[in-house]
Amino acid sequence: MVHRRYERLSGLDASMLALEDHDAHMHIGGITIFDAGPLWKSDGGIDIDAIREFVLSRLHLVPRYRQRLAWTPIERHPIWVDDARFNILYHVRHASLPRGAGERELKRLAGRIFSQALDRGKPLWEMWFVEGCGERRFAMIGKVHHCMVDGIAGMELMRHLLQPRPDPAIPPREPWIALPPPGRERLLLDAALRPAHAIARDAWRVLRAPRDALRAVTDAAAGLGESARASLRPAPETPLNVAIGPHRRLDWLYTGLDELKEIRTRLGGTLNDLVLAIVAGAVRRFLEGRRTDVTGLDFRVLCPVSTRPRGASEEATGNKVSLLVAPIPIDERDPRERLRRIVATTTELKSSRQALLTPAVERIAEWTWPGLVGVMARAAAGTRRHNLLVTNIPGPREPAFLLGARQLQVFPAVPLFHGQSVAIGLLSYEKGLHWGFNSDWDAVPDLHDLVLAVEAELEEFRGAAARERATAAPARQKPSSPRRSPSRSAPH
Fold it and tell me: Residue 268: is its pLDDT beyond 50?
């Protein structure tokens, strides 16, 4: 008998589908620049056939990439089933910039690709391999729906395609046959039994560790209260918080990671604190350029925080994140004081229980109604709890290769929510921190001004760190005794 395999989306994963509409697309991804190496062909292009064959040889490690969405009867909850019509040609695409094009044209192409919603009738991912990106270079513009992965899981999945050494060999494909989807009767029975299974599982956890269970309930209730209080006071209106359409404009920036760490060491805080302080100053410059008074403005940033357990399987997909809202002092002009205030804010947030809210709501949804997380997500989006999304994703410190082609840079692209026309994603790779800026095409035609503002604020922090270094240097020097020369007397 053939086993009809399927998997339900978690409440948080399903909420990513519920939040998506014609204007707000919920795919994430990035733009990666490669040195073509052995993938370069004599005719001046890249070997796209080898790339497709290599991707096919790795898909058995990430079976979700051969699955599509289906829905259960009555409750209409999304599930994953095998796609019997899977075609690699649809998902791994080939494009080229016009002759003489440069980075500007690549950004425009990436914006057009990110403006297109993924087809829900197919596996929810695409990879565009783009030629013409400079001498013997090509780009990969990748996007995958947020209901499949979060930022951390996306990095784990890319490790199956990228190798630590330049190896052009393509392993043989693993055999694959699409399993038929489950029938209506099976889905109805599973839906009827699911709440009982969830309650029994959690009851067993309570019996095994009652103190831990009580602490979890208390923390979740506190997190719900904190979230409710925050929702009562929407984030203020700014020129960044306007209605959005489906069209996107992308930009990016590279900064040295070692330099940022040196600044952080001199001025205090974590790397994430420093990033938020730079963003706060850049937003002030950008808004003032639009003649906006930022004095006393309660500007808030949404910061996704990973709740993925340490040592989780690399094959683990789905979303394991909670969302924290951090106010940042964009009206503070002094970089050191701005960083100090952000460190105080993030320290307080780390001791809050906001991060425990999403897992708790997901568990309650398993007991009751699976659409609960989606309803809460839409309600939170409607109240505009934040002005800007900023997320920092840790990446590999060692070089990575695609069939011998070295990955040079990788700039993330994170989605926009309604009422939010800009989102900033950061990803570390080798010795650099890569900033990716996503914006609404019409609402933010001056996106590059924000990129320039980030560069200007980074220069401010360089200066602050240099002044701190100069101030600290004399204090570390030991006073030395004057030395007398044996051939002449010391001056009077």
Answer: yes
Comparing 94 with 187, the larger pLDDT belongs to 94
Rounded distance between C-alpha atoms, residue 96 and residue 304, angstroms: 34
Q: Which of 440, 108, 437, 429 is nearest to 282 (CA)?
A: 437
CB contact at 8 A, 118 and 126 = yes
Residues 354 and 256 in one domain: yes
- For residue 281, what are its two tokens? 């100053």
Cβ neighbours of residue 334 closer than 8 Å, sequence gap 6 or more: none
Residues 245 and 118 in one domain: no
For the segment 133-150, the average pLDDT, to the nearest whole number, is 90
Contacts of 57 (CB under 8 A, 6+ apart): 170, 171, 172, 173, 174
Burial class (CB in 10 A: 0-12, 13-18, 19+), 177: exposed
Residue 378 is assigned to a structural domain of this protein? yes
Q: How confident is the model at residue 171 (pLDDT cuts 50, 70, 90)?
A: very high
| d(C-alpha 336, C-alpha 416), whole Å | 30
Contact 144, 28 (CB under 8 A): yes
Q: Are residues 154 and 221 in the same domain?
A: no
Buried b (16+ CB within 10 A) or exposed e, 253-262: bebebebbee
pTM for this one? 0.84
Q: What is the pLDDT of residue 325?
A: 87
CA distance 430 to 408: 9
The pLDDT, as a whole number, for residue 267 is 96
Can you state the angle between helices 271-289 and 335-350, rounded to 10 degrees? Answer: 120
CATH number of 48's domain = 3.30.559.10
pLDDT in tens, 385-416: 889 999 998 888 999 999 999 999 999 999 99
- Other Cβ atoms within 10 Å of 469 Cβ, number: 12
CA distance 275 to 167: 35
- Residues 364 and 488: their CA atoms lie apart, in Å, by 88
Q: Which residue has the tokens 């070295």?
A: 406
Give me the phi and psi of 395, to 5 degrees please: -125, 180
Q: Give the chain's length.
A: 492
Nearest in space to 449 (alpha carbons), one of 287, 333, 331, 332: 287
Confidence of residue 219 (pLDDT cuts 50, 70, 90): low
**Rounded Cα–Cα distance for residues 141 and 154 (Å):** 14
Residue with tokens 């924000």: 450
Return all residues near 197 (Cβ < 8 A) that are at least 6 apart: none
What's the confidence (pLDDT) of residue 395? 86
